[in-house]
Amino acid sequence: MKTGGHKILDCTIRDGGLVNNWDFSVDFVRDLYDGLSAAGVEYMEVGYKNSPKLLNATEPNPWRFLDDRFLQEIFPEKKATKISALCDIGRVDENDILPREQSVLDMIRVACYIKDVNKGLDLVQKFHNMGYETSLNIMALSHVHEHQLIEAFEAVNQSAVDVVYVVDSYGSLDPKNTEHLVKKFRALLPNKQLGMHMHNNRQLAFANTLVGIDNGVTFLDASVYGMGRAAGNCHTELLVSHLKNPRYELKPILGIIEKHMLAMREKWEWGYIIPYMISGVLNEHPRVAMALRSSEERDNFTAFYDRLTSPETVDTLVKK
Amino acid sequence: MKTGGHKILDCTIRDGGLVNNWDFSVDFVRDLYDGLSAAGVEYMEVGYKNSPKLLNATEPNPWRFLDDRFLQEIFPEKKATKISALCDIGRVDENDILPREQSVLDMIRVACYIKDVNKGLDLVQKFHNMGYETSLNIMALSHVHEHQLIEAFEAVNQSAVDVVYVVDSYGSLDPKNTEHLVKKFRALLPNKQLGMHMHNNRQLAFANTLVGIDNGVTFLDASVYGMGRAAGNCHTELLVSHLKNPRYELKPILGIIEKHMLAMREKWEWGYIIPYMISGVLNEHPRVAMALRSSEERDNFTAFYDRLTSPETVDTLVKK
């Protein structure tokens, strides 16, 4: 199935913030917005709409705890690119959300694990009632069984949600199991738009996204130069250069990379790095690899591999 | 079509030598051979079997101009991993080649452009008569028209060559046109084994190789940590971790990366680098991007993109 009408959702600020604790300057975020708009990218995710109170935050972090007044200062004039925010169930205070017509945000996305889909849908319904486009991003799908999906999707089909996302949190999917999963989503959610959010642990984020496109996915998450947690995401510049829509222009994205991303990549680490490859291959959360990269053992790949594949470690990981 | 029986051919020394002018220590090459053997990799390509005289070489370069006596010193005892060399038509002196039973080499591969297939097959026949396994590696396929393939393959089918390679010299293929090309090769060469040699300009070398596997390709070129010209190749560690053959072990490859490749990557440059992405997207030879990377303009991506997409530049490139 090929539907066309793809939309790229750039999540450089939101997912990239997991790399640098959202240490993005206002100038960078504005440059990124202008560049994405010039490139024809349809959505930019500017951060998390979580609550500093609920997360016991002790320091301000504007892109992690998006505030509507702040957003209005940053984006006094919007261009064609819509603006989205992500929130996690249990971490968002609904009273923080203004009706869409008073907000810079166009879309609010809700991330949850499969067991919390109903809680996610409650939030989606509230945001939908306030006028927002909505999505439900079901994380860690490589650990989810088919019967869990079938059960959860009954409620999803009854809900107001616009887009349902296939999220490869662990970067463990390959093109074949991506195709299998997307076809299952397509069959079980006949009236919803589908999205995908891939991680690049095995250098397959772009290829998996292409598989999604061929199977009816329309919302394509990506980040400029792949900036995102651990191995990062599908690269926005690869999608923009590949998709045939005449609206897309590669050059503005190259400009952002040239002006900002090379220096940022020197300062912060993401991308194809062996411990992330290993956690992807083993279908593990990247947190073990992120901990390794913050330690003095950061380049001890064989010892890390031994640890993750020894029977004792499996016990520890299961118990965690 | 799925045949199983894949063979990984690691070309770290040969293709990686295009990055560092074959500046590999004997210790590294021996460690690599031991590691690839322990990992179950079937072939290691140790360099080029070209002639220093024919290339007017002024300095010794043992991995570029392989010599049998030298190879016997380096590999006094062979393990399960076979050893191959590549040569280019017009650059190899047939008198330099010993019969296989006197050589460390098991396989000689011949690289050529489509117009030179008959010259390539002449060489293949000679190496075949001397007892070697042979392959014909047809370069720059993304610029070849179907009628040229059909014409050339009549002679290939009549020849003694064991393996015919799909070579994506420019790193411009995506999984769809890779599938198209491999299916064409499979249909036109019913009695030959197929190989593939992908470049990683668009982060698709691994994904394209997976497409090849699903369509009957058995010889899979790769290099450790992707080390190869410009954007490099499909990563050996990704193939070894993915293929289901119980012979494969990831850990010895991780050991090579940990011990050698991180330091080598600090010293020499290959991989996903924006000018190589641009040349791949534009289906151009990477030499323009390699020249840029050697200049002071190395990070001026937008100017490079402008130059490659302006009508004047297209004229220059066509004339070159």
TrEMBL record, chains A, B:
Q: Which Pfam families match?
A: HMGL-like
Give the GO biological process terms. Answer: L-leucine biosynthetic process
| Domain named Pyruvate carboxyltransferase: residues | 6-258
Which parts of the chain are coiled coil?
none
Provide this UniProt record's keywords sorted from A to Z: Manganese
The molecular function terms in GO held by this entry are: 2-isopropylmalate synthase activity
PROSITE patterns for this protein: PYR_CT
- Name of the featured protein: Pyruvate carboxyltransferase domain-containing protein
> Which PANTHER family does the entry link to?
2-ISOPROPYLMALATE SYNTHASE 1, CHLOROPLASTIC-RELATED, HOMOCITRATE SYNTHASE-RELATED
